[in-house]
């Protein structure tokens, strides 16, 4: 909407129109204009755009925003009813309208010592009961009292899942693998349906001391079912016992379908259950995280939940203009919808966070990658950007050339860790400290260069350095004091609530994923074709797919 029309006819005013007009004005103001000087105004702006919650620090000062932008964005959120909808989320309202379910993943991390919001009490009580069952399993394993079918103690856990049943636990296991732990359990993750991850484990692990964790909300996901059946066949043949016996001793099930776990042969004592009001991509905090607890111990798992719960309370209780999830969501929507930036890079400057981009791809794009609103009408603008990224130091040698001097505009989150605890000699600690400082320096330099471009080059060097750095690429810096269970729990909960806030702004359901279903159905029929079976229903044939089927059949003979 043209700013002039809004000015002469107040009846045309809406928060979205105001933001569109504001975006037009901001196009002429670069990040260099906003932050590129040491003036009092620039310093005040920078200090006003940082927030800290515990050991999590958010810096929004390299975003293309000012106080007017934040005020307009907050007005937009209020006009969408964010505060009322936030209360409904925590109260167990059926915010997942297509599946007629609540979305109470927060209940899985609600501590027994705190009173849940009205409407969450039963959910929190159920989750706490399951957490007790989980803790008992972990204790049995760590005491070397979990015995396989041949009587030997379990030493290795193979976690079999996909999507939300894999990405979150795997991320935590990698991020905290170097934390001090007194457990003697190694955890391995298998998700790919082609068996490429499973085969090396079958060649290297001792089948007598290997426990399988089958993590599947629906208990019908083909990827997971094929992997677990192959793993069970390996254990059965190697140990010379039947599969029923293997299931009784060396299989744990985690699902929202206890009846299907029982039918599969998993004893009740080895079942962990979560309800369908916890979505798969929000399920890390539920018993889906059992392998994390087995690897790291219950103290670390509890700290993970505590960090997430702290953000839950902050999101629920803090005014919008000081609310970290609200602000990061508003800025993300501003970049995507009003500044027309189609992609968002996630750039962790710590190798332990290498799986963070993949985790956030599912969390954000599966939640808000939609074009139909809750009222059934089509969305007329971009919603979720394309999420992508890599570990920052590696990315600098891969795609930063395009980001700095190519023609694509991106937004970015730089994620860094201020320091780490290392159990090593002083000489090694000093060397690692220098590496940490180098990594942090690169993170800050790249964030600065993204924002300022050529203006980041000191005047004394401009005649000696290649220029053409475009700059004006908005980015946030998320700084963790250290990478521990509390901090990463807080970080992931921050992103979860970001997703919810943006779904409110765009009037979407972030808790379903109808777009993934048809591909599964087509794959089932094509699998039956490749396996020489009769198809359950007619498949739409096209020449391209037909010729690929013929070539595959030819080469597999």
User: Rg from C-alpha positions?
Assistant: 25 Å
Counting H and I runs of at least 4 residues, what is the number of helices? 22
Q: Please give the largest β-sheet.
A: 6 strands, mixed
Helix-and-strand structural type: alpha/beta
Please indicate the percent range of residues in DSSP E strands (runs of 2 or more): 5-15%
- Report the mean per-residue pLDDT as an integer: 94
**Gross geometry:** globular
Q: Specify the oligomeric state.
A: single chain
Identify the strand order in the major beta sheet. Answer: 1-2-11-10-8-9
Helix amount = 40-55%
CA distance, first residue to last residue: 62 Å
- Total strand count, please? 11
Low-confidence stretches: 1-6
Please give the structural blueprint.
Elements: H1 3-8, H2 15-26, H3 31-35, H4 40-48, E1 50-53, E2 56-59, H5 67-79, H6 82-90, H7 121-142, E3 156-160, H8 167-175, E4 186-190, H9 198-204, E5 210-215, H10 222-239, H11 243-250, E6 251-255, H12 258-264, E7 271-273, H13 290-296, H14 298-317, H15 324-338, E8 343-348, H16 356-368, E9 386-389, H17 392-396, H18 400-405, E10 410-417, H19 426-452, E11 475-480, H20 485-506, H21 517-530, H22 543-556
Parallel strand pairs: 3-4, 3-5, 5-6, 6-7, 8-9, 8-10, 10-11
Antiparallel strand pairs: 1-2, 2-11
Report on the architecture of this protein.
This protein has 557 residues and is α/β, with parallel strands linked by helices. Helix content is 48%, strand content 10%. It has 22 helices and eleven strands. The protein has helices at 3-8, 15-26, 31-35, 40-48, 67-79, 82-90, 121-142, 167-175, 198-204, 222-239, 243-250, 258-264, 290-296, 298-317, 324-338, 356-368, 392-396, 400-405, 426-452, 485-506, 517-530, 543-556, and strands at residues 50-53, 56-59, 156-160, 186-190, 210-215, 251-255, 271-273, 343-348, 386-389, 410-417, 475-480. Strands 1-2-11-10-8-9 form a six-stranded mixed β-sheet, with helices on both faces. Strands 4-3-5-6-7 form a five-stranded parallel β-sheet, with helices on both faces. It is globular. The termini are far apart. Mean pLDDT is 94; it is low at 1-6.
């Amino acid at each position: 909407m043209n700013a002039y029309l809004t000015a002469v006819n107040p009846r045309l005013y809406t928060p979205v129109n105001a933001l569109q007009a504001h975006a037009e004005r901001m196009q002429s103001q670069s990040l260099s204009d906003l932050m590129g000087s040491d003036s009092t105004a620039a310093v005040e702006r920078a200090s006003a755009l940082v927030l800290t919650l515990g050991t999590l620090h958010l810096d929004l000062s390299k975003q293309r925003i000012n106080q007017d932008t934040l005020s307009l964005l907050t007005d937009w959120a209020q006009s969408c009813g964010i505060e009322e909808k936030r209360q409904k989320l925590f109260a167990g309202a059926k915010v997942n309208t297509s599946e007629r379910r609540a979305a109470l993943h927060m209940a899985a991390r609600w501590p027994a010592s705190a009173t849940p919001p009205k409407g969450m009490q039963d959910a929190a009580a159920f989750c706490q009961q399951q957490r007790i069952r989980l803790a008992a399993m972990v204790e049995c394993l760590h005491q070397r009292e979990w015995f396989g079918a041949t009587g030997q103690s379990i030493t290795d856990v193979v976690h079999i899942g996909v999507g939300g049943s894999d990405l979150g636990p795997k991320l935590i296991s990698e991020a905290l693998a170097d934390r001090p732990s007194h457990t003697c359990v190694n955890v391995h993750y298998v998700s790919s349906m082609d068996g490429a991850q499973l085969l090396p484990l079958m060649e290297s692990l001792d089948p007598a001391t290997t426990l399988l964790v089958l993590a599947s909300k629906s208990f019908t996901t083909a990827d997971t079912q094929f992997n677990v059946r192959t793993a069970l066949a390996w254990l059965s043949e190697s140990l010379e016992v039947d599969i029923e016996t293997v299931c009784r001793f060396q299989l744990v099930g985690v699902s929202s379908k206890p009846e299907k776990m029982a039918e599969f042969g998993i004893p009740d004592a080895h079942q962990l259950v979560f309800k369908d009001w916890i979505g798969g991509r929000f399920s890390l905090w539920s018993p889906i995280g059992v392998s994390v607890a087995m690897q790291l111990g219950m103290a670390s798992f509890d700290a993970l939940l505590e960090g997430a719960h702290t953000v839950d309370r902050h999101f629920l209780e803090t005014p919008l203009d000081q609310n970290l999830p609200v602000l990061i969501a508003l800025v993300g929507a501003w970049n995507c919808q009003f500044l027309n930036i189609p992609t968002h890079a996630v750039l962790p400057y710590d190798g332990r966070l290498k799986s963070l981009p993949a985790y956030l791809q599912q969390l954000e794009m599966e939640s808000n990658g939609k074009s139909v609103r809750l009222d059934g009408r089509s969305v007329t603008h971009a919603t979720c950007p394309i999420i992508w990224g890599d570990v920052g130091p590696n990315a600098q040698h891969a795609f930063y050339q395009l980001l700095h001097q190519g023609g694509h505009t991106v937004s970015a989150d730089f994620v860094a860790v201020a320091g780490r605890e290392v159990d090593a000699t002083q000489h090694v600690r000093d060397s690692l400290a220098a590496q940490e400082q180098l990594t942090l320096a690169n993170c800050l330099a790249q964030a600065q260069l993204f924002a300022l471009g050529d203006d980041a080059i000191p005047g004394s060097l401009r005649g000696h350095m290649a220029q053409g750095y475009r700059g004006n690429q908005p980015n946030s810096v998320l700084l963790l004091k250290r990478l521990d269970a509390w901090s990463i729990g807080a970080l992931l909960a921050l992103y979860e609530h970001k997703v919810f806030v943006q779904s409110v702004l765009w009037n979407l359901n972030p808790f379903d994923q109808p777009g993934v279903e048809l591909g599964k159905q087509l794959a089932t029929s094509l699998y039956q074709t490749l396996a020489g079976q009769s198809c359950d229903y007619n498949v739409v044939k096209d020449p391209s797919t037909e010729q690929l089927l013929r070539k595959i059949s030819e080469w597999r003979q």
